[in-house]
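Hi support team,

I've been running sequence recovery on a batch of backbones for a student project. Most finish fine, but this one hangs at about 90% for roughly twenty minutes before it completes. I'm not sure whether the input is malformed or the queue is just slow. I've pasted the structure tokens below so you can try to reproduce it. Let me know if you need the job ID as well.

Thanks,
M.K.
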């Protein structure tokens, strides 16, 4: 599965600047383009690239200074790709960086790197750590952005993994995203569970996908799956750490209430969500149109803000009258409210009143729909 480098990833400039001073760790789900990005920093005859997908290479990285010194040799930049395959990766990478402070290391791995070895804690203060997501609309060439805005159906059906976006037709897109959902994402998740239960995880995430845009009761999910609530909670937490899903908590002025109330869950990639619910139908004719569009727009907004280096908190809000605001965005103490609609350009009085409960003014609400969503998720 080839990954096109036609997309200019926002991390390109960030990493280039950081390499002047320090090393970098890049993590995220499989197939989002990590390898393509880091290879762009390898200079011929000056730098080295190691892929730990090669078992022999992964085994050569052991926590021994002399052995590591022989590996990195005279190179200035050393890329270590898929570092989660290194035994005791946290300890080994820490020793490597501490032993050769004049070199720059670019390390990639799935989120399993942290789950298995506590690598982030081991490398805190030694590297800059960045998550990497599927392609954002903001990272697409201008012409492609305009095309998605004019006809978003394919992107909403199949998602934005690089190999999906560059596939020649709908059938190929469907095949690729189904493979990613069934093999790549589950492989990491299941490798860190004592119980090998791929059928349970598929059912759990499929059930979650069917509730996109709705508050999720973990008790109800546990009953539906005939397991304990703790099991559901554990798998959801794991799936969030591996960038399959993103939890959206309810907004409340009382922080403790944000934690205790029911949450919503969205998929980082809508194509993965559709693969799990086994529905790749055109958004125009789908019964789940509202939740699917809400998922798509909210995750694109999060990726866009990440590309601008905006540190935001994200919530939804359910007002005193039961009306909901789809997205509440909090940045530097400033709160903004957004209602995500596929076609509608108006909302109920209840939603306006709910906005006033947060901001003090019913007019402080922006409606984001198919006609105006592009400036909301891209410059």
């Amino acid at each position: 599965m080839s990954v096109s480098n036609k997309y200019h990833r926002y991390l390109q400039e960030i990493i280039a600047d950081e390499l002047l001073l320090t090393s970098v760790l890049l993590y995220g789900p499989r197939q989002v383009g990590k390898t393509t990005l880091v290879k762009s920093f390898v200079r011929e005859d000056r730098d080295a690239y190691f892929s730990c997908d090669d078992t022999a290479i992964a085994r050569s990285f052991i926590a021994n200074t002399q052995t590591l010194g022989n590996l990195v040799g005279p190179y200035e930049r050393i890329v270590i790709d898929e570092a989660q395959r290194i035994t005791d990766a946290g300890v080994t990478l820490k020793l490597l960086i501490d032993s050769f402070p004049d070199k720059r290391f670019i390390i990639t791995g799935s989120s399993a790197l942290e789950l298995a070895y506590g690598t982030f804690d081991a490398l805190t203060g030694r590297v800059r750590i960045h998550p990497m997501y599927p392609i954002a609309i903001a990272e697409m060439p201008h012409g492609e952005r305009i095309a998605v805005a004019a006809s978003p159906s394919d992107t909403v059906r199949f998602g934005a993994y690089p190999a999906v976006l560059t596939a020649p037709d709908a059938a190929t897109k469907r095949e690729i995203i189904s493979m990613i959902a069934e093999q790549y994402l589950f492989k990491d998740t299941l490798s860190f569970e004592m119980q090998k239960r791929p059928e349970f995880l598929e059912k759990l995430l499929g059930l979650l996908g069917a509730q996109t845009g709705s508050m999720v009761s973990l008790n109800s999910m546990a009953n539906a799956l005939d397991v304990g609530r703790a099991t559901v909670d554990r798998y959801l937490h794991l799936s969030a750490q591996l960038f399959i899903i993103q939890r959206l908590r309810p907004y409340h002025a009382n922080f403790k209430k944000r934690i205790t109330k029911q949450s919503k869950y969205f998929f980082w990639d809508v194509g993965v969500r559709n693969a799990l619910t086994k529905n790749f139908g055109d958004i125009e004719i789908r019964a789940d149109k509202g939740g699917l569009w809400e998922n798509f727009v909210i995750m694109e907004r999060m990726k866009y803000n990440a590309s601008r280096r905006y540190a935001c908190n994200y919530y939804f809000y359910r007002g005193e009258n039961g009306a909901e605001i789809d997205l509440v965005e909090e940045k530097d103490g400033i709160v903004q409210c957004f209602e995500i609609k596929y076609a509608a350009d108006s909302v109920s009085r209840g939603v306006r009143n709910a906005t006033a409960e947060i901001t003090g003014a019913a007019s402080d609400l922006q409606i984001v729909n198919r006609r105006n969503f592009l400036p909301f998720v891209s410059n």
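--
Follow-up from support: It reproduced on our side and the slowdown came from queue contention, not your input. Residues 170-190 form the longest helix (21 residues). No action needed from you.
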